Amino acid sequence: MAVTLTDNAARHIERSLNKRGKGVGLRLAVKTSGCSGLAYAIEFADEALPEDQVFDSHGLKLLVDARSLPFLDGTELDFVREGLNEGFKFHNPNAKANCGCGESFAV
Fold this sequence. Notes:
Elements: E1 4-5, H1 7-20, E2 25-32, E3 38-45, E4 52-57, E5 60-65, H2 69-72, E6 76-82, E7 85-91, E8 97-98, E9 104-106
Parallel strand pairs: 1-6, 2-5
Antiparallel strand pairs: 2-3, 3-9, 4-5, 6-7, 8-9
């Protein structure tokens, strides 16, 4: 099982953590929400929790709780700029469908 970052995502997260001045990494999770049933949740993590699985990618820690891991296994997190918009993009091999707005997915 693994979750990884692209070079762009790693650079963005590292800059954000440095600017923030604290944090051990990025917490990724899945919650029930949206048109397709599941949505991604991203937040900075100030500490690892006992239930976290910790992945190291580009020297950064990605923390995923045990409930979310089956939905995120094999996912690569990218940071993209499209026109005036920028943000994280999940390349998730487990997602069988995505909603039109891009906010949720189904497995």
